[in-house]
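Collaborator request, handled under Task 6.
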Amino acid sequence: MKRLLQDFCADETGATAIEYGLIATGIAIAIITAVKGVGTKLSTTFTNISTSLK
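Structure tokens returned to the collaborator:
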């Protein structure tokens, strides 16, 4: 039983998957933030153009 517990504590195979998941989450948050900022600016620009054409 002691050996099984030592092997379990030494096993790091899941750590890499968790790290990649955290990196992917960080990148997704950055992309969402950038797209949201650009979308707001584009919406304002198109509203201004629409108002100018009327």
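The cover message to the collaborator said: "Helices lie at 2-10, 13-53. The CA atoms of residues 19 and 25 lie 10 Å apart. Please let us know whether this matches your experimental observations."
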